[in-house]
Amino acid sequence: MFRTAITEMFGIKYPIICGAMMWLCKPGFCAAISNAGGMGNLTAGNYETEETFRAAIEETRKRTDKPFMVNITLLPSLRITPAHHQMYIRVCAEEKVAGIEFSGTPVDKASGMEAIEIVAKLMELSAVTAPKSKGVNFVQTRVLTGVDLQKLADGMVRFGERAGKKDFDRDAKGVGRSGAVVLIGLKDSKAVGLDCGACGYPDCKSFEQQAKKEREFSGPVCAFRLLDMGIALGSAVKTASMLNADNRIMYRIGTVAREMKMVDWDFVMGIPLAATGKNIFFDR
Q1: Which residues constitute the domain of residue 92?
Q2: 32 and 138 share one domain
Q3: Domain-located, residue 69
Q4: Which among 14, 44, 249, 251 is most buried, taking Cβ atoms within 10 Å?
């Protein structure tokens, strides 16, 4: 087995990625390459509706349990429009495909989405595909844009004043100036079943019997599920860094997003994103 950055990143046997080919890169061909140890490639442009695109991903998964990626070709077309590009990106994130290959026109111009929103969607993809304890996922994601950013920023200021806690107003300024915020959290997570005691209880059965206590977050939470969330956060900010988007993980965002019922999760962190000449989340 070859060991390269590509094989390590995707967990494949050979550092070979199938090139996207219209009309050819469909489930059968894609799965065959993945089963042979390479990275299969499903060409999104073969599918004009969300239903047929999702069905193709499902069919590929029936044919292989190995990773495969999706190609989104961003070239002028009468058949495939910017609305299709947006749909492809969203579905890839929701279906947790191993990777996305973009080709053609710069992605933000072709898709009609702001570049920072595309980064946020790819961060969601990174979070949901990050390794999870026993392969069971309780990690949740949501992207906030537009007016929701100012609502969140205003809510952070109010929360800090009411609770008498510092720096909520400082972080709110960064949120108000950001292009998007990625929320990553846990909902209804269950104990892994190792009886390790890291949660403070003697075994997982004792842990599961505890009533949830509500403060800024809801707990207790299994230590291994918190590790899952930490890995998801790290995977998401790694993607942002690779795409040169300024970011910072902020607990205060999660506290207020939860209080404002933007999400109904037990534990939440927020990652604001910006693309400016100076990192507004650190140089403050």
Answers
A1: 5-113
A2: no
A3: yes
A4: 44
Whether 274 and 116 have beta carbons less than 8 Å apart is answered as: yes
Do 144 and 259 belong to one domain? yes
Same domain as 140, residue 46:
no
256 in any annotated domain: yes
Asked whether residue 126 is assigned to any structural domain, the reply reads: no
pTM over 0.85? The answer is: no
Please give the angle made by the CA atoms of 253, 254 and 258, to the nearest 5 degrees.
Answer: 115
Q: What angle do CA 263, 174, 240 make, to 5 degrees?
A: 75
Sign of CA dihedral 146, 152, 155, 157: negative
Which residues have a Cβ under 8 Å from the Cβ of 202 and sit 6 or more positions away? 195
Kindly give the pairing relationship between strand 99-104 and strand 68-74: parallel
User: How would you write the pLDDT of the chain (284 residues) with one tens digit per residue?
Assistant: 678 988 888 889 999 999 988 899 999 999 999 999 999 999 999 999 999 999 999 999 999 999 999 999 887 777 888 788 889 988 998 898 998 998 877 665 555 567 888 899 999 999 998 999 999 999 999 999 988 999 999 999 999 999 999 999 999 999 999 999 999 999 999 999 999 999 999 999 999 999 999 999 999 999 999 999 999 999 999 999 998 899 999 999 999 999 999 999 999 999 999 988 888 888 76
The backbone torsions φ and ψ at residue 243, rounded to the nearest 5 degrees and listed phi first, read -95, 10
CATH number for the domain spanning 157: value is: 3.40.109.10
CB atoms within 10 A of CB 195: 13
- Tell me how far apart the alpha carbons of residues 233 and 248 are, in angstroms, rounded to a whole number: 10
